[in-house]
Design goal:
- With about 290 residues, the chain is mainly beta.
- The chain folds into two domains: about 70 residues, Thrombin, subunit H, CATH 2.40.10; about 140 residues, Methylamine Dehydrogenase, Chain H, CATH 2.130.10.10.
- The chain is about 10% helix and about 45% strand.
- The chain has a four-stranded antiparallel β-sheet, with no helix packed on it.
Length: about 290
């Protein structure tokens, strides 16, 4: 479903027919600037503009408020799966048990994160939380939200992070930096780099959103430009003899070229692209298949 917050509350739409969005629910109570729905359940978490430090968890079908929590600073992001609810503040993260909403763990004194950048895997079998490990470079901290301990730190980019996303199984994490040209995909278990894609060479591009398809075969990216890029994961195959010769030639050439130049040769390009009618705004993307 699609959840939209507005000046007059929030609305839920069905995506069964993307050509004709069906309104599922409408709440016209207060200005809502943040709203998250737990998959297709009736559980909705909201934050209003009038009370930016208060989180409300509601059962929208019954029209009842389950609970509310207040925090020390403005809530910047809320993420949920079937076992955890995570609230992100600028310098801390609160991990709740979604069954009773008790705070299980608080990650304090995180690097300044004014955008509330974080990601929570959607599977409770591999319940991982990712957030910036640095405010100056693109480090990703992977935290085990099930067993409540830090797992690994991934040095993903030279510049600060701009976007994060787990694949549906939580085994991979996609990252983009403020530079906005390269998207990398790492193993969430050990931080090994698996794929690298080049969005483009245009400067001053702000990547605002990354999303995997549910099958895990595609990754899409949106930014402040009018173009949405879709990348396809091509798993390595047995190389024919010709490719071995080409790789040998590339290995010879790379010894004489800067690392930045040889990296460009190995970066994947967009499998497909879509063009939006406007640019210069923050776009959030998802893949529905």
């Amino acid at each position: 479903s699609l959840v939209v917050g507005s000046k007059s509350g929030y609305r839920l739409y069905s995506l069964n027919n993307v050509d004709d969005l069906e309104l599922i629910y409408s709440n016209d109570v207060e200005e809502t600037y943040m709203v998250e729905r737990l998959f297709s359940s009736s559980l909705v978490a909201t934050v209003s503009l009038s009370s930016p430090r208060k989180l409300k968890v509601c059962h929208f079908k019954k029209g009842t408020e389950i609970c509310n929590y207040s925090y020390s600073n403005t809530i910047l992001a809320v993420r949920m799966n079937r076992s955890r609810l995570v609230v992100c503040l600028e310098e801390s993260l609160y991990i709740h048990n979604i069954r009773d909403m008790k705070v299980l763990h608080t990650i304090r004194d995180t690097p300044p994160n004014p955008q509330g950048l974080c990601a929570l895997s959607i599977t409770h079998d591999n319940c991982l939380l990712a957030y910036p490990g640095s405010a100056t470079i693109g480090e990703v901290q992977i935290f085990d939200a099930d067993h409540l301990h830090a797992k690994t730190m991934i040095p993903a980019h030279d510049s600060p992070l701009a976007a994060l996303a787990f694949n549906p199984s939580g085994t991979r994490i996609a990252t983009a930096s403020e530079k906005g040209t390269v998207i990398r995909v790492f193993s969430s278990a050990d931080g090994q780099k698996l794929f690298e894609f080049r969005r483009g060479v245009k400067r001053c591009v702000d990547i605002s959103s990354l999303a995997f398809s549910m099958c895990g075969q595609f990754l899409c990216c949106s930014s402040n430009t009018e173009t949405v890029h879709v990348f396809k994961f091509e798993e390595p195959r047995d190389c024919p003899r010709r490719s071995v010769e080409e790789s040998s030639w590339m290995g010879y050439l790379s010894s004489y070229l800067p690392t930045q130049v040889t990296d460009v040769f190995t970066q994947g390009r967009a499998f497909a692209a879509a063009h939006l009618p406007i640019q210069g705004v923050r776009n959030v993307i998802s893949i529905v298949m």
